[in-house]
Specification:
The chain has helices at 22-32, 54-62, 77-89, 105-115, 132-140, 160-165, 189-202, 264-276, 282-285, 288-293, 298-302, 307-320, 350-361, 387-405, 410-415, and strands at 38-39, 100-103, 123-128, 144-149, 171-177, 205-209, 233-239, 252-258, 325-327, 335-340, 363-364, 366-367, 378-382. The chain has 416 residues and is of the alpha/beta class. It folds into 2 domains: 10-51 and 300-415, Aspartate Aminotransferase, domain 1 (Alpha-Beta Complex), CATH 3.90.1150; 54-293, Aspartate Aminotransferase, domain 2, CATH 3.40.640. The strands form 3 sheets. Strands 2-8-7-6-5-3-4 form a 7-stranded mixed beta sheet, sandwiched between helices. Strands 9-10-13-12 form a 4-stranded antiparallel beta sheet. Strands 1-11 form a two-stranded parallel sheet. α1 (22-32) packs parallel to α13, α4 (105-115) runs parallel beside α5 (132-140) and α13 crosses α14. The longest helix has 19 residues, at 387-405. The two termini are 37 Å apart. The relative contact order is 0.16.
């Protein structure tokens, strides 16, 4: 009998997540062959020696006997109440524990909040460049991601006029990622206020991805979106992964504020979806109260002299010393979105370069096109490595770009 091929669902045909795609698979192959790869494609603090605060680990261990069974579908009460207290400290006073949903990281919640909202063909406004899970989750839930531009020449900050022009009768929500991944931009209060007014005028749900909320540098000010949105529903998304260096705990939350009285059916649907997966990881939830209420060690890391601050500076210096690279200095998060100038390399292609850099220099970066950017001259790196490692990285990048400028990479470009 002929063999029947088992094919993937057609719903995956337009879904991409290149951060862990072909380049990452090739890097793993090379590591199995014995090569040492400097991986800068993912913001994974544990891979670079960052530790979760000890108090969080102890809180989880001490409550392990209470973590062996299922919990409430929205999460344990102490964790949800801690999120409420954080929101109240920021001036968002209309949130209760019933408005908070704990998930297996923000990643799971992105899927759930969209699944509970969208009908086939509904549109969601998503920034470009974006964290690609947002675009993928819109697509998987039958929607269409409409990308609003965050232009490099504007410091990667969106223009509210551009956003409003994209609103249609099918638009249901707008996604704001601030501080931004991949660009490191931190949006101004003026821009965020304008986006809030657009959402209110058109009755759009605002999903504000604030997973990097405490990661800002120098004089950058983080403004919580929930403090600005009042006349429509606002879902604030955050978690333990980045600020608290606890990616593996898989704990995130969505806190809903604003016009909740107009969204009771939606929130009931979200609770139903939360019930279908029973609950999220319980042991990790016991670290939330300690994390949010305890000493905020992230301030030491992002302040002058802190490791993340120094590594960010190493990236800025590496770009400044390059013949090819340009950079809008990141004001937040843990990434830099680096541009390769076309003055010297007019045929530059980000995906081909990323593969060439991996094969020849053993450095793994994420090409800009991975983030739904409409241009092919950027790549993203994380500032998690120490400054010494980043100095090595930029030396290797410069060597590879020298090779490209000399035409030696033309053959590899042709096969990408």
């Amino acid at each position: 009998m002929p063999k029947t091929r088992i094919q993937a669902s057609s719903s995956l045909s337009n879904v991409r997540y290149e951060i862990r795609g072909r380049l990452a698979r090739r890097a793993h192959e090379m590591e199995r062959l014995g090569y040492e790869i400097i991986s800068l494609n993912i913001g994974n603090p544990g891979a670079y020696g960052f530790r979760t605060p000890e108090t969080m680990r102890l809180a989880m261990i001490e409550n392990m006997p209470a973590a062996e069974g299922y919990c409430h579908q929205q999460g344990i009460f102490p964790a949800r109440e801690a999120v409420v207290m954080q929101q109240q400290d920021r001036g968002v006073l209309d949130v209760t524990a019933d408005d908070v949903f704990i998930g297996n990281g923000v990643s799971e919640l992105i899927d759930l909040v969209l699944r509970a909202l969208l009908e086939n063909g509904d549109e969601v406004l998503v920034p470009s460049p974006d964290y690609p899970l947002w675009t993928a989750a819109v697509t998987l839930n039958g929607g269409r991601a409409v990308h609003y531009p965050c232009r490099p020449e504007n410091g990667f900050e969106p223009d509210p006029e551009d956003i409003e022009k994209l609103v249609s009768k099918r638009t249901r929500a707008i996604v704001v990622i601030n501080p931004n991944n991949p660009t490191g931009a931190v949006y101004s209060r003026e821009t965020l206020t304008a986006i809030a007014r657009i959402a209110e005028r058109h009755k759009l749900v605002v999903f504000s991805d604030e997973i990097y909320d405490s990661m800002t540098y120098d004089a950058a000010e983080f403004v919580p979106m929930a403090t600005l949105v009042h006349g429509t529903l606002c879902g604030t998304m955050s978690g333990l992964s980045k600020v608290y260096r606890a990616c593996g705990y898989r704990v995130g939350w969505a806190a809903f504020s604003g016009a909740r009285d107009q969204a009771q059916e939606y929130l009931a649907g979200l609770e139903l979806l939360s019930s279908l997966r029973l609950c999220s990881n319980v042991p990790g939830q016991w670290a939330v109260q300690t994390a949010l209420g305890g000493y905020q060690s992230i301030r030491d890391l992002v302040g002058p002299g802190g490791r993340l601050h120094q590594s960010r500076q190493a990236i800025i210096d590496g770009v400044a010393h390059s013949k090819y690279l340009q950079l809008q200095p990141p004001c937040g998060a843990m990434y830099a979105f680096v541009k390769v100038g076309r003055e010297r390399l007019p045929d530059f292609d980000d995906q081909a370069f990323a593969m060439s850099l991996l094969e020849n220099r053993h450095v793994l970066v994420a090409p800009g096109v991975s983030f739904n950017a409409p241009y092919r001259d950027h790549f993203r790196i994380t500032n998690l490595p120490d400054p010494e490692t980043l100095a090595v990285v930029f030396a290797r990048i410069e060597e590879e770009l020298d090779s490209w400028a000399g035409g030696k990479a033309s053959g590899l470009r042709a096969v990408q």
